Queue: 4 jobs
Job 1
Amino acid sequence: MATLKLGIIGAGGRGINSFGSMSLRHPKECQVVALADPNRPRMEAGLKKLGIQCDLYEKPEDLLAREDIDAVAITTPDYLHETYAVMALEAGKDVFVDKPLATTTQGCMNILEAGRKSGKLVYMGFNMRFDPVVQRLKKIVDDGELGKVFNIQSQEFYDGGKTYMARWNRLRKFSGGLFIHKGSHDLDVVNWLMGARPVRASAFANVSVLKPEGIPFELEEGETYGPNCTECQARAKCRDGFDIPADTFGKEAIEADGYVRNTCIYQSEKDTHDQGVCIVEYDGDQVASHSECFIGSITNRLYTVLGDRGTAVADLHANSIRVHPRWSKDVVEHKIARGSGGHGGADPTMFRNFLDCLLNGAEPLSNAVDGVWSVAIGEASEISRTEKRVVEISDLLDPKSDFLR
């Protein structure tokens, strides 16, 4: 069996700590031979962290021009996914795209079209599908234990998510908005469990805390705070301050492109939300809601799935699912063991599936079509939030498109 030659576009956390690190577990099956990022100090620091050597390119186009590269992982900021995925497919490469597929529904469709024309794999990086709790929940639904599913409630509490307001994610022009960037995970899980297509969405979201009047400390006379945690005079007072990796995001990397990863979350300009909720209606008369909160005192994901024969409540941090059969006081509890590696073992399992698709002809557990539907809900939610109206999914795509079959 030939060793797959892989290229990575994007030397941030997902490119180095996730995709790059996972590739090292399979040295006989794959090898990272090239890394591309405009920030050379970040690339060099990333390779040092991985303990490998490979070719470095400041222009992803140069990496994609190499004929010997079999597949490319795209782990750039979200707004670049479409550009490099399409370029990679046109260059004859199989492609792994970290979530979301793109920042707009049309961008996703462009990737889908390029994938169909090239005949190459477009693997959608939805690692939540590989979470052990989510996988067990999917089996419970598919086995009919809950009967017909008609309502799903998704809740994500992510205290660490406040750092989105310190990074590029805070601007919709880079992320598409947090219903797309972060919500794409959960919205895909909801779509997967529901087994139906979304029809319309509505959303409400605001910056409720992470703004200047929300700073959780008193300033002394003449004292200032910000513009980032590294330089902040009030750093010792602020419990939300955080340090950045000195190797991949430190002084040399900042000097290369000006990107500061710990901009003050209270001062930063932003057009995303720190908390919000979207509501989705499906074509089988089902409904779903997804709430996401990037501030608070807990971090967890909860999925409540209601069917006409029972209800299941999945708690990802408790590694448990409680099934409540209808017309009974019984409770069936599932305790699920987690694996090792990122996202409770989900990342390595996803990477294994990606390799199996390329090497053994396996089917991807998540594909580009799944990516389209997730982003469509996210984009509709972002429009709804901004324009304060219900948005039809058909305004963003043709549900009958051959590309979506």
Job 2
Amino acid sequence: MNKKDLAELKKHFLPSDDLLVIRKVFTTFIDSEKTRRCSSVRSFAEIPEEEMSVLYQTLARVLKGTLGKGLIEYAFPNEMYEEDKPQNLLWELLQNGLDDEEQVEKFVSHISDNMVYTLPYALFVAQCTYTVFEKNKFGEKNKFDSREFHFLVAAVCPVESRVDGLIYDEEENSIIRKTHFDRVVADAPTDGFLFPTFTGRGPDVNHVMYYTKKPKDPNVSIVEEVLGCHYTLSAEEEKETFRAVLDKAVGEELNLQVIASVNEKIQDYAKTFKDEPEPPVISDIMVRDILLDSGVSQERAETAQQLYRETADGNYFIASNLTDPKTTLSAGGVTVSISGDATDKVTTRQIDGQRFLMISLDDPEVTVNGFQMKM
């Protein structure tokens, strides 16, 4: 599933769009003891308009992440299609359209038994249909040639209990302390998934798209235990792993200029190919060439290439996951942020055995906390 496919689904996931329709929706509340407190399967057309709008908003958020960060596509291992395995459970649920009560029960039990979640939560599962029109070579729709893409989208939303605070009591015409419990379901899911993926404008039942609100801290239990897939590094983990590779391989040659240059070159590469359907990745050969262009010796660059190839194990890291918008230096309570076009103004020096960070102040105006500093 690439950016183009994802954008097409996002575009039509609206209450007012008649091409993408939510047929039915399953809702349930699961408490902190993993006990299901309530559940229902309803025809979406019968849901009150106000509630329908909130459900659309919640489910649509599952598609609003960035590929490679908040949205990660996973392939099902072959054994996951066996009976009662995750891929098989999803397929049966999709085929039965949430109508088979026993199948729904089995699927929800699978989630509640295997997902690690610290709060009570609400689970929403929607059965959707998107009418896909074929397009000619000019990108124009053929209204006489269409097919249906059936899919499931699920959202996991935390439920918080609120007992504190003040309320206005109309009967007493006064402001008093709230005394009853409110269990508030967040409309922003922390996790979710789409099955099957919409690949090449059609279904791919061998892949599932996982959504996380926190790309730096994904819920691994959903990926591995609920969906039965092999977890890959998150965006933040890719960055940390890449840093560790360079630190180990480049060693003492990893100075300020090299770090800034590597960051800038990967940023430029990511920007150049940002409109490509698939997020651009950094290959092991690119790691070597970027380091060589940044002034690293041949031996160290080739060591980094080999170590990165072994670490990535064929799953090269996404370019945009490896960069920082600014070069940031921190030492002894002092932090200096440098934008990409100003890294050449900062150098390191050793004077009389003391190390210094030198900033060229060729600009006549220097501000500190918004004040113009007198030189």
Job 3
Amino acid sequence: MAIYGLCLAAGTLALEWLDYQRLVWAHGEEVMLFLVAAGFLALGAFVGVQLFRAPPSPPFDGNPRARATLGISPRELNVLQALAAGRSNKEIAALLRVSPNTVKTHVARLLEKLDARRRTDAINKARELGILP
């Protein structure tokens, strides 16, 4: 039974090969024209992507000048980043391995340094200053 299947597959392959050969002989110029056009299309797309690609943006540095001017400590920056990620005081405390009261103190100092009334104001001002992405 397997031999019959192999013979059938070989016969089908031979018929398809002959059909392909007939197509190439009958429409050889069109096939070549299509292949050349497809090659130029691919080349044009590649060159277009290379030429009109947006320049790479500079890496985010967190505006160290603004942080230094405002006096934001590295720990306060960690709290600010966690606030921007939408974490609660308890989640931030667990993440930084400090007490929730310490997080509250850091948040209060951040609000004062960024001259903000709410956490969302502080996050927006930090983004405007380039401290947060």
Job 4
Amino acid sequence: MRENKNSLKLAFVTPRYGRDVVGGSEAVMAEAAHGLAQRGHRVEILTTCAKSHFSWANEFPEEVFTDVDLEVRRFKTVTKKRRLAVAKIEDRLSAGERLTDTEEDIWLNERFRAPGLYLYLLSQQRRYDAVVFSPYLFWSTLACAGLVKEKSVIMPCLHDEPYARLGIVKKTLTQAAALWFLSEPEHQLCHRVAPRMSPLHEVTGAAVAVPNSYNPAKFMEKHGLKNPFLLYVGRREEGKGWDNLMKSFASALATQRFKMDLITVGVGNPNIPESLKNNVIDLGYLEADELPDAFSAASALAQPSKNESFSRTVMEAWLAKTPVVASSAGEVVTWHCERSKGGLTYADNYELTECLQLISSNKALAAQMGENGRAYVLSNYTWDKVTDKMEDSLQNLSAVNQLVYGG
């Protein structure tokens, strides 16, 4: 930790925290918090005892502990058994229907709450110069950010989805003192969702650590892999495009225009149909130190999700010089692919087939896309560059609060 004469007292509020917690916004929050702590800021993580974003059950103990260079405070969650009325509200919301304020409150409070976290922020808010919240969708942001309006920084990880049009989301984003966006498309979406947001907003981006080395042969040998493969890393769930990817891959495979397996890594049940058992291989959850080898061994990374505000797996693939094949419905990843020239996008089964056939047959083009991708990440998304932007934003917010509120 280096000495910092302009040291700030910061809290990062994230619904889940831990080395074995899988989630993009949670990872960015953890890495940003540690990065700022290493620059001499006094940083705390305020989080829940939950590990799973499905159950929100208390799997970690309620405690305060030190994690390397920052303090972590865990608070118990309170959950309810899902009611039919709430399921109907969810269905209406997914269909794009407008909810009443009462219905929005019911929807927000039925998944999980953390009363201890709320009361802690309410009583201890004066301790902090700024409080960073992420992502936008959960109770820990929507119910708690309003407690510290003049000190709140929201990194929304906003997606173009019905949830983003909720009145409580617009209100929370509008009231935030500052906002951090991970990409320009997310920034523009927030202008549409909350046009009166604070002028203290910035596209900070995010980053991933650059591995020291890659060993694709070791990965192939360890898992007994023989064929070239398309890699999917992430949560195996419909909202991330996993089900659609399997269907599209099956259609592409049936053309017999290329020879490639689909390897999946992550959490959640992949539900591989019997017809694909020989071509879709589930490796389950891998430790972080093995993932670089997986990325480098792949012929390409698949990103079928349309709901991405950054996509760290895309950046990790490009660092490994692996090209990306992504759904064109994902505005953010399409933006990255066009800027970097490191990937291809597809709109339907036919286009996915064309992408995979091109990567399989044109090794020089695939290698050039991988090189382009790595150069793009190193130029834009290293932690030094991203932390500089976050630190400048926090110092600006602190200066404004000193001027307006005297502290």
